[in-house]
Amino acid sequence: MPKNVSKKTFYVTTPIYYINAKPHIGHAYSTIVADVLARWHRNLGEETFFSVGTDEHGAKIAEASEKQGLPPKEFADIMSEKFRECWKLLNIQYDDLIRTTETRHKESVVSFMQELYKRKFIYQAEYEGWYCKGCEKFLTEKELVSGMCPDHKRPAEWIKEKNYFFKLKKFLPKIQQMICDGDMQIVPKKRENEVLSLLKQNLPDFSVSRQNVRWGIPLPFDPTQTIYVWVEALQNYISILGFSTTAAQQGERFQKFWPADVQIIGKEISKFHCIFWPALLLALALPLPKKFLVGGFFTFDGQKMSKSLGNVLAPKTLVERFGVDGTRFLLLSQFPYGEDGDIALAGCVERYNAHLADNVGNLVSRIGTMIQKYLQGRIETHPEKQIILEETNKSIEERFSALMARDQIQEALLSLFEASTKLNQHIEEVKPWKLAKTHPTILKQHLLSWSHTLHVIGRCLAPFLPNTGERIQRAFRGPEFQNPGILFPKIS
Ligand code: ME8
Questions:
Q1: Each residue of 388-419: pLDDT tens digit?
Q2: Is 80 exceeded by the pLDDT of residue 310?
Q3: Which part of the chain is the Methionyl/Leucyl tRNA synthetase domain (predicted)?
Q4: Which of 3, 222, 245, 347 pairs with 111 at a CA distance of 20 to 30 A?
């Protein structure tokens, strides 16, 4: 099904998060990255769709709700709301949020599974193996550490049951070829290599149903089983678009936005996303996502930050201290996308002050003060200086856009701070306080030039720090300077 090509579209997704516990900064990070891309592509004039969601079925959620003494759906309602609140707090501008307990998701998944069965890609078999409820997946002997799941530090359970299996093997060569041909990109390269090496391991077919998990969507052709939570969760990316195998019920959104342009995921779920998900899509002859951006982990003392281990940092803690844009900055600037990194709260204060309060914040306030003092608050275009201005600003914007196009998200953000540092240094060299006395006309030209540069920086910064970017643009858009106030108060 070809994508509607009348206007360039852009579809970006985040993983749908488990709701067994509240969101932490790992979830915030991948969601903010998706938000940056969505905002950037909207600014480029593309018709953009940005999806988020919550993964609400399966043994892990059933267990968590039981611990709270609540029916699973009631528990899911409460917990899903926490994610919604968190995205609001972080100024995430998503287009839709899908919950896997919603009817629209269930209907879409049922039609998908029925079609797989009809096309004979599903068969029944006995299965036994070690299962980790935390991961919601079977683990091999080799993956276990002293009988425990290495990620969740809990004993795996031996499970033997009747299952339905999907003919994964049939699709592995095609997936490998699509990755090698660049038709389905996996970024960064080292994650692509990991997926390619998994593909060479001759993976077995995987189970698409569970016999003893009641909290899930019944398998349409055998309601004594529920659909394996991962299989239905992956389908959220198309159920949110209204996917159906019945042409008459096919959603307009699906026609317009599928295949996804970018799917943001963490490295621990790349096997599901870059192998299982494409295989399911190929079985129904659907196009594959164009790109996966695979993120690393925030760690605490070298250990993965995870809801199950309880070593988490809540986004709210950071927002209370550093504000929304401060938090977005700290998370996005800490590591190149795709790398792991240990979170050090102490370093956050230093980075906030150095980049936000003392660099960009200070630059905006000193140029603003000079415009009020020397130009009586008027920012007018100045034909003689226009050429020089455009060249400087063009290079800031071009460098930034090139980095964004290469998915170097952290580097793109930091390039704006480099531009700001340079401008701060340039002001020191020019010594405006002296020029004001000796060459007021030249000072005026400089001030106009600097305010244009700030306007460009504000425009590029807006997808990352929306409020700050908007305030900077408004301040220096002209013809009247609009005082943005203090952007980032210094923190001690
Ligand atoms: O895996 N550092 O949900 P999940 C950085 N429901 N990112 C992190 C992180 C950390 N310490 N911890 C989590 C699931 N993430 C499934 C997904 S999608 C069809 C189903 C981020 O709640 C990262 O993006 O465990 C990771 O892949 C995702 O949250 C997993 O969230």
A1: 666 677 899 999 999 999 999 999 999 999 99
A2: no
A3: 10-153, 157-367
A4: 3
Q: Are 360 and 423 in contact (CB under 8 A)?
A: no
In one-letter notation, the amino acid at residue 356 is L
Distances (CA, A) of 318 to 26, 89, 93: 13, 11, 19
Q: What is the pLDDT of residue 1?
A: 44
DSSP for 20-61 reads: SS---HHHHHHHHHHHHHHHHHHHTT-EEEEEEEEE--SHHH
**Domains in the chain: ranges and CATH:** 9-295 (3.40.50.620), 345-476 (1.10.730.10)
Alpha-carbon gap, residue 445 to 450, rounded angstroms: 9
Which DSSP letter does residue 487 get?
S
Among candidate residues 393, 336, 354, 335, the one with its CA nearest the CA of residue 490? 354
Q: Which helix (H) or strand (E) holds 244?
A: none
Q: Which of 264, 297, 308, 409 to mutate to test the pocket of ligand 1 (most atoms within 8 A of CB)?
A: 297
Residue of 307, 355, 444, 446 marked catalytic: 307
- pLDDT: which is higher, 41 or 445: 41
- Calpha distance 35→436 (Å, rounded): 43
Other CB atoms within a 10 A radius of the CB of residue 11 amount to 28
Classify the phi-psi angles of 460: left when phi > 0, otherwise alpha if psi is within -120 to 50, otherwise beta.
alpha
Asked if 132 is an active-site residue, the reply is yes
How many CB atoms lie under 10 A from the CB of residue 70?
A: 15
Under 8 Å between Cβ of 294 and 6? no
Predicted local confidence at residue 26, as pLDDT: 92
| Residue of 55, 90, 132, 133 to mutate, ligand 1, most atoms within 8 A of C-beta | 55
- What would the mean pLDDT of 87-99 be, rounded to a whole number? 98
Q: How far apart are CA 46 and CA 147, in angstroms?
A: 50
Residue 436, pLDDT > 50, answer yes
At 293, which amino acid appears?
L
Cα 342 vs. chain centroid, distance in angstroms?
A: 19
